Amino acid sequence: MAGLTLTAGPVQATHVGCGSVITENTTLDSDVGPCPGDGLVVTASNITLDLNGYRIFAANGPGDNAGIRLMNPSTGGVSGVTVKNGTVEGFDAGVAIYGGSGNTIQNMTIQNNVNDYLARPCDLGDGILLLNSDDNRILDNTLIANGPYGGISLVEDSDRNLIRGNTVLGHNLRSRSGSGCGNTNQDEGIRIEGPGANDNIVENNLVEGSGLAGIGLHGHVCNPGPNEDATDPNTGTIIRRNTVQNNEQDGISFLQQGPADVVCPSFGNTIERNISSDNGDDGIFVAANSYDNVISHNVVSNNGGAGIRLNDARFNNVFTDVGPTLFDLV
User: Omega before 121 cis (within 30°)?
Assistant: First the structure.
C-alpha cells in the first residue's frame, strides 16, 4: 500500500495501487488498474473515498473480485463511508458492501462488471451489492451491463436502504456473447432478493433493458421440505416514481421463483406513481398469495402482457392506475 494520506482541511490527492486497503480519507490522483484481484478495500468507518473522476478497472483475474469492497475482516462491516465520483469496470462486482450500515455510494459509473466464472456457486455478479447491510444510500449512479445477477442487489437481511436517482441500463446477458456465473442469467435492474430485506425505498430511478424484471422483489421459502429451512419474506418495500421500460420480462415484478407449495411471494409492499411501459411481459406483476400490497397511481402502457397482473387480487389494495389493458385479475 503506497502513500495513503489523512486529509484534514484541503483535499489532497493520494496515489494508491490495486488491492490497497483504505483506512482514511482518500482522493485518487490517477486510475487504478488493471487489477488482478480486488481494486480497493475499505476497512475503516466514517471516511470518504473520492475517485476524483478516475477509473478503477480489472485485469479479469480468478475468483470473486470487487472493484471496491467495503468490509472489515475483524468487525464485519464498516459504517459512515462515502464512495463517490468515479468509474468501476471489469470486475465480478463493482461495489460490494458486506454487513455495512449508513454508507453512501454516489455519482459513480459502474459498468461491465460480470462474473464470468464457469462453475457454480459464485457470490458476486452485480453492479452494486448490499449483503446483510442496513441504512445505506445508493444515489445518482449510472450502472450499465453488470451481471449475471443485477445492477443493484439487496441480498439477505438488508433493511432500510435508499436506492434513489440511479440510471440502470442494459442488465441483460442474453444480449451479449456468453453469460455469467455457471452460465446463468438472472439479470434484473434492481433486485430485492433478501430473504428478509425489509423497509427499503426504491425511488426516482430509470431502469431499462434488463433480461428479467426491471425491478424484482423476490419470494421466500414458506413451506420448507425436510432438508430445507424457512426464510423470511421481504416486506415494507416502497417502489415509487420510477420509470421502468423496455425490459425483457415484467417491468416491476413480485417474483415467486419456485413451486407455489414451497415458495411464497413477498407481501406488504407499496408500488406507487411509477411509469412502466414497453416491457416484454406485464407492466406490474404480483404473484399468487401475495397480500396487503398497495398498488396506486401507476401509469402502464404498451406492455406485452397485462398492464397490471394481480393473482389473488382480493388480497391487495389497488387505486387509480392508468393505462391500456390495465388489469388481469386472476
Answer: yes
Long-range contacts, 21-30 (Cβ 8 Å, 24+): 22/47, 22/49, 23/47, 25/49, 26/50, 27/52, 28/52, 28/54, 28/86, 29/54, 30/54
One-letter amino acid for residue 127 of the chain: G
What are the φ/ψ torsions at residue 168 (nearest 5 degrees)? -125, 105
Structural domain boundaries enclosing 288? 31-329
- Write the pLDDT tens digit of every residue in 68-93: 999 998 888 999 999 999 999 999 99
Residue 16 lies in a domain: no
Percent of the chain with pLDDT over 90: 62
CATH number, domain of 196, equals: 2.160.20.10
Q: What is the pLDDT of residue 76?
A: 84
Phi-psi region of 183 (alpha: psi -120 to 50; beta: other; left: phi over 0): left
Does the predicted model carry a pTM greater than 0.85? yes
Domain contains 9: no
Residue whose C-alpha cell is 484481484: 37
Tens-digit pLDDT profile for residues 259-304: 555 667 788 899 999 999 999 999 999 887 788 888 999 999 999 9
**Has residue 51 been placed in a domain?**
yes
Phi (first) and psi of residue 257, to 5 degrees: 55, 50
Pairing relationship of beta strands 263-264 and 220-221 according to DSSP bridges: antiparallel
DSSP SS3 for 324: coil
How many domains does the chain contain in total? 1
Q: Which of 271, 262, 257 is nearest to 299 (CA)?
A: 271
Does residue 2 lie in a domain region? Answer: no
Task: Tell me how far apart the alpha carbons of residues 77 and 160 are, in angstroms, rounded to a whole number.
Answer: 16
How does pLDDT run across 223-248, given as a tens digit for each residue? 666 777 777 888 899 999 999 999 99
> With contact defined as beta carbons under 8 Å apart, do 216 and 179 qualify?
no
CA angle 247, 251, 252 (to 5 degrees): 145
- CB count within 10 Å of CB 174 equals 12
